[in-house]
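STRUCTURE REQUEST FORM
Protein name: Phosphonatase-like hydrolase
Source organism: Chitinophaga ginsengisegetis
Requested output: structure tokens
Priority: standard
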Amino acid sequence: MFIKAKLIFSKSLSLPHINTGKKMGIQLVVFDIAGTTLHDESNVAKVLQQAIKLAGVTVTLEQVNEVMGYAKPYAIRYLLQQQQDSRYSDEAFVLELHSRFVADMKAHYATHPAVREKDGVSAVFAALKAKGIKVALDTGFDRDITNVILERVGWQQKGLIDAVATSDEVPFGRPYPYMIYRIMEELEIRSIQSVAKTGDTISDLEEGTNAGCRYVIGVTTGAYSREELEKGPHTHLVASLDELLSIF
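Status: completed
Returned output:
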């Protein structure tokens, strides 16, 4: 004897939307901070260069620029290793240099008169949000530095950003995709094909590509030139963020 079961769904629940193959629109744009949304006059590179100099190691700004966008402890280890300094494998020593870098960067972002958003950034954030697109930030900085920046520029207070991920909040920073995935989880974004990544370094482009973002957009007015960014994986290159509005 078979008993016919009746399946009952609560009216308070609904099934999640299933993507049936229809191309999705952009629901989230993840922006880098320094050099992309925040005005930068090689300040990050100069402070990192000075931190390395504390170890008695001289590196050029060109060498430092190679690691812009990466988590800063990794950048310090890489620069020491490139100079054949065996202390690159000494975790305590690297963290000591990183602590000096963090302190100097926090002081810079808290007090320096040149600290400001890049032209038109707040307007672009507002325009994206008016289209129903979420705006997020990710960065090679740790949370301490990032909080000082956010306090200074006021994006959160104005309701212009929906989420922020920093390199010390994930197992690995750029070029790994984990900051993007962390933001997607927080904002309940289901598909990476509805996400765009925007930044001014090769590590930004690699991060977006490794994540599988639909759009990976390089900003040519930051740490890297157009010619340099053309060597990295990307879907678009722009000179200013307001060009994003036509892409989306």
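Reviewer notes: The chain has two domains: 28-40+116-246, 43-111. The CA atoms of residues 137 and 164 lie 5 Å apart.
Form closed.
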